[in-house]
């Protein structure tokens, strides 16, 4: 089986992290986003990456994983962004092999329990002629207008309507960005910049040939800082249920916390809930961390307090500093001692010498 992952897009909403590497490579729970999709287990042998931004970085990185994962990875490179459907037309020859088998198409920035097996079974059970199976999350999301919304018959899964980012409320079942498509869908897609959500799915739904299942378990688009942090909580919750031994334990741990084996944690720290501690990271004595993720190679100095924030690679947070409210430090940012950051979004390679009292971008 084959899968195409939509990895293009500039990832602007996840800046400043995406100023350093493409969004799909940004770590989530100590693993690049894109590697959370366990495709091998369900029989995918070939993955096509639809890329339009920083292709060299992606390629170098993934060659390393090709062997480890035992999957063939190839790139389909756009010279200009082709949206979410155009890349399928561009990769047509890679996706079609005459077998008539369906293939997966995945957004690269969603995190879930990926119900690939359920989707294959559902696809087989509804396949008559040219059905296409979209998948949709049933989160009672606060803002369905941020997503594609699916109006479906609950019993059969038949999609009546697919609408992308409509301000008007039509339902709260949202498109999860995980699809299993029959090759015949390619006959509907032209080689130009085009949106699968706006131009392709609404038409297939109108013909009553689009089907969906309600996603079991958790789901989150982690392409924006606030959702990234919310996704962390859901992910760690599910880890607690499925393989709790991976989570940290000890008197200094509260709730669900994932600590990389190479991270060093000092005396008297209080860590959690919902914290991820990346590799090579040093947390000095008396530090307080909650609802945050700290990437590789970071140093958190004594008695610093960090909550609801993301600390980018190789940054430092000074002694007694207080970093909170969706503060995002890009790569190599240094927050001086005793500084307060209330929602500062700091671009890479900066030194922060004075406090940031309200949410703002620091260039
Ligand atoms: N190759 C390529 N080329 N990929 C692209 C391009 C492009 O021009 N534009 C976007 N992508 C990729 C992104 O990297 C991402 O993996 C996926 O396509 C979706 O793009 P986003 O920019 O993340 O879209 P969204 O989050 O606003 O909305 C989409 O995802 C929601 C769920 O997370 C839509 O599919 C919604 O319907 C859906 O609800
Ligand atoms: Mg997205």
TrEMBL record:
The lineage of its organism: Eukaryota, Viridiplantae, Streptophyta, Embryophyta, Tracheophyta. Residues 2-235 form the Nucleotidyl transferase domain. The keyword Transferase applies. InterPro entries: GMPPB_C, GMPPB_N, Mannose-1P_guanyltransferase, NTP_transferase_dom, Nucleotide-diphossugar_trans. One of its GO terms (molecular function) is GTP binding. Pathway: Nucleotide-sugar biosynthesis; GDP-alpha-D-mannose biosynthesis; GDP-alpha-D-mannose from alpha-D-mannose 1-phosphate (GTP route): step 1/1. This is mannose-1-phosphate guanylyltransferase. Its EC number is 2.7.7.13. It comes from Gossypium tomentosum (Hawaiian cotton). It comes from the Eukaryota. Belongs to the transferase hexapeptide repeat family. GO terms for biological process: GDP-mannose biosynthetic process. Residues 253-362 form the Mannose-1-phosphate guanyltransferase C-terminal domain. Keywords: GTP-binding, Nucleotide-binding, Nucleotidyltransferase, Transferase.
